[in-house]
Each structure stands twice: as structure tokens, then as C-alpha cells.
Amino acid sequence: MDNGGWLYPLMILFPLNALALVHATTSRSLRSAFMAAVVMIVSLPLGWFLFRNGMSAPVNKYGLTFTGADFLLGPDRKQKLPEAMLMFRYSIIQIGAILVMAYGMRLILKATRSPAPSANPAPARPAPGQHPPAPGAPPPSPLQQARKPDAPRSFLR
To answer: Which label site among 19, 56, 63, 81 has the fewest CB atoms less than 10 Å from its CB?
Structure first.
């Protein structure tokens, strides 16, 4: 597999990891939280492997040989960081990306689960102490429906 081919599984790993996190936060069970943590822990070294192998071939600059990961995650082009530090920096980026994806998934999930406003709302019930409108009388306005009998008429409080 060429270098770029390693990045395709990485593009699948991120959303699957975010999906496990969303499932854990919506189901609120200990088992789901444990599984999301296991998926996150396993995905970090797997993601690092895919990222490191998916970058371009090494480049010789300033007498040093840099990999794509060195170029993207290193502080500058004059010194190389140890592999453990590069993996730590990558892990922070991966966790952040997964959290952002999971947050977006939760927003979409919340928006799709909220009930849509009805085109024909049910008629308002009269408040205690009020009588229902007489047959043939015009329906009350939304303002009259929302106003409580004891509420002041001003909207400013």
C-alpha cells in the first residue's frame, strides 16, 4: 500500500471512535462508557501507526532526515523530536478531533430527536377559573393563549 493508502483507514477510525463516544454519552451505562474508553485507548496507537505510515516519504533538510510526522508535529525544521513526543502530540490532536466530531454528532442527534412543531397545535385549555370560549367566537390569539389570568400585561419585568 502506498503512503496515502494508510490515511483512508484513519478517516474511518475517527468517526467510529466518535460514534462510540456518542453512544456512551447517550446510553449512560457503565458498559458503554467502558467500551468507549477501550476504543479510544486502542485507537490512539492505531491512529498513530496509520498517520505515521500515511505521510509522505522522508525528506532531507538541513542535514537531517524528516518524516511527514516530523514536519507536521515538530517545533521547527532544525531539530527532531523523539518518537514518543510526536506520538503524544498526535494523540492530543486525535482526541481533540474525536471530541469535536462527537460534539457535532450529539448536536445533530439532539436536533433530529426533538419534536417538530405541529402545524395544527391542539387547542389551548382554559385556565382554572376561566370558561371555554363560546361556540362561534373567534379563537384566542397566541398572546391571549400564552397569558396567564394573573399575569401582568407588560412583557418587561
So the answer is: 63
pTM: 0.66
The identity of residue 20, as a single letter, is A
Residues of 18-46 as b/e, b for ≥16 C-beta within 10 angstroms?
A: bbbbbbbbeeeeeebbebbeebbeebbee
Contact 102, 18 (CB under 8 A): yes
The tally of domains found in the chain comes to: 1
Measured CA to CA in angstroms, residue 7 lies from 19, 42, 57, 59 at distances of: 19, 17, 14, 19
Buried b (16+ CB within 10 A) or exposed e, 93-105: ebeeebeebbeeb
| 101 is a domain residue | yes
Q: Is residue 155 part of a domain?
A: no
Check if the beta carbon of residue 18 is closer than 8 Å to that of residue 55. Answer: no
Domain-embedded: residue 149: no
**Is it the case that residue 75 has pLDDT exceeding 60?**
yes
* Host domain of residue 27: 3-113
Q: Report if residue 51 sits inside a domain.
A: yes
Higher pLDDT, 157 or 132: 132
